[in-house]
Amino acid sequence: DTGVSQDPRHKITKRGQNVTFRCDPISEHNRLYWYRQTLGQGPEFLTYFQNEAQLEKSRLLSDRFSAERPKGSFSTLEIQRTEQGDSAMYLCASSSTSGTGDEKLFFGSGTQLSVL
Amino acid sequence: KQEVTQIPAALSVPEGENLVLNCSFTDSAIYNLQWFRQDPGKGLTSLLLIQSSQREQTSGRLNASLDKSSGRSTLYIAASQPGDSATYLCAVRGGANSKLTFGKGITLSVRP
Fold first, then answer.
1. Residue A104 is nearest to which of B34, B53, B104, comparing CB atoms?
2. Per residue in B45-77, pLDDT tens?
3. What does the buried/exposed string (b/e) look like for A21-42 if buried means 16 or more CB atoms within 10 Å of the residue's CB?
């Protein structure tokens, strides 16, 4: 168990550019979540996958955001035409469904995005 | 829509003090509740998870309780240490296939 891995740790980009982040979940976990966090706020849900299926997507997520998990393992989050308001920490988490109420989320260290 | 509130936003205590962090939620129909710790610029570390059928969970100096009917949870930290300084976040899940909804967190500072 190597934990949830996110890459890159930091990304600085200019407004209007596209960026892509990668998340590698804990290997046996079938669920993968993306959250966004700004300073002083709790994480805000973006989307989640069970295996390769995207089961829920936040209404706050504009069309510029897209996420994939093509083989049910790693996931990518792409932001097109970045805006300054996209500057935030992007957190990935994974879990294993148990059906017994004890499903814990394990988070990665996040990708800090700064849009200039 | 579930809303999670954590008050106060910040707390400063002297080392050795026992303390309680509060979390309240608006919809009592939850599946589970999880407490996390976050150090500055880092991801979240899971501390304790309480299932909806449970009243409390303990891990070392930490004890979390859940009162679903009143929409409240508390995280008790015994004999606080400077290393406990961090932000503590509470999050609730509405169902087995639901997302976690987070509070804004409480930033704890333990003074030596």
1. B34
2. 999 999 999 999 999 999 999 999 999 999 999
3. bebbbbeebebbbbbbbeeeeb
